[in-house]
Design a protein that fits this description.
Helix content is about 30%, strand content about 20%. It is of the alpha/beta class. The strands form five sheets. Strands 4-1-3-2-5 form a five-stranded mixed sheet, covered by helices on one side. The protein has a four-stranded parallel sheet with strand order 6-10-9-7. It folds into three domains: about 90 residues, Alpha-Beta Plaits (2-Layer Sandwich); about 110 residues, Oxidized Rhodanese, domain 1, CATH 3.40.250; about 60 residues, no CATH class. It is globular. Helix 1 runs antiparallel to helix 2. It catalyses: uridine(34) in tRNA + AH2 + O2 = 5-hydroxyuridine(34) in tRNA + A + H2O. Its EC number is 1.14.-.-. This is tRNA uridine(34) hydroxylase.
């Protein structure tokens, strides 16, 4: 786990575990009560197949909440990747009930039954240097846009539900003997490798702990990662050492905007960016601009209110 530079820093924990939770509906209220009591914010997803989410809070609050989570024997080995930031990146505490904790939309895919071979961050470079390995980024297009591994194939998906179609159209177990896949924290890869195993692929690998673990463990000078890694909170993206990167989200299209694009004349905070400026209607731009104006007014009022 990375060490906090400031003992008062906010702890951000991306966590998941595939495990049978037939009582997941009944788990919702106790988990939410513990989040509120520990002043932990963020969102957890619960389904019969397990738990997934990202939450944040003070070191003491997070320690108490994670301790409660792991007090359930089924969640004792929950996978947790921690990083730090100066301000809590979530506004609310939520626990949501879902059919899947990461939505693939294919019946019968269960990582509790079969997944690919885990590869630790320290061994990942050697694996992807193998010329026989087909390297697949299982994330969506807006995530891949700001960073990925050298040589990785972009499936060009808008949602994870589109990934099975990519597999059926572009991968063949008779031609692709070795397939390695990666994602942000590891959860999508577990579903992806389970899918490929069902489709008849034999040698399937995935990065244990995902990109976040790789960026934490592997120094920049030895890294095969290019760019930044999109995260699903107000930090937007992180880079090597899990440092917060210089990205903001465009309200118009939802894509991350890097520092250079933020200087472009077509970038208006809360309205549009160079990517979507010509895709929005004048009415949308007007509505978004008014929303941004109201938000800025409210923030100024909050700053001067004692």
């Amino acid at each position: 786990m990375p060490e906090a530079k400031d003992p008062a820093a906010i702890v951000v924990a991306a966590l998941y575990r595939f495990v049978r939770l037939p009582d997941f509906v009944q788990l919702r209220e106790p988990l939410l009560e513990q989040m509120v009591a520990a002043r932990v914010r963020g969102t957890l997803l619960l389904a019969i197949e397990g738990i997934n989410g990202t939450v944040a809070g003070s070191p003491e609050g997070m320690e108490a909440f994670i301790g409660f989570l792991r007090s359930d024997p089924r969640l004792a080995d929950v996978d947790i990747k921690q990083s730090f930031c100066d301000e809590i990146p979530f506004r609310r505490s939520r626990v949501r009930l879902k059919k899947e904790i990461v939505t693939l939309g294919v019946e019968g895919i269960d990582p509790n039954d079969s997944v690919g071979t885990y590869v630790d961050a320290e061994d990942w470079n050697e694996l992807i240097d193998d010329p026989e390995v087909v390297l697949i980024d299982t994330r969506n297009d807006y995530e891949v846009a700001i960073g990925t591994f050298s040589g990785a194939t972009n499936p060009q998906t808008g949602s994870f539900r589109e990934f099975p179609r990519f597999v059926d159209e572009h991968l063949d177990p008779s031609k692709h003997a070795k397939v390695a896949m990666f994602c942000t924290g590891g959860i999508r890869c577990e579903k992806s490798t389970a899918l490929l195993k069902q489709r008849g692929f034999q040698k399937v690998y995935h990065l244990r702990g995902g990109i976040l673990k790789y960026l934490e463990k592997i120094p920049k000078q030895a890294s095969k990662w290019n760019g930044d890694c999109f995260v699903f909170d107000q930090r937007v993206a992180v880079t090597h050492g899990l440092e917060v990167a210089d990205h903001v989200l465009c309200f118009g299209c939802g894509w991350p905007v890097d520092r250079e694009a933020q200087q472009h004349t077509d970038f208006r905070p809360g309205v549009h960016c160079p990517r979507c400026v010509n895709e929005l209607t004048d009415e949308q731009k007007k509505r978004f601009a008014e929303r941004q104006r109201q938000w800025e007014l409210q923030n100024r009022e909050d700053e001067v209110t004692p």
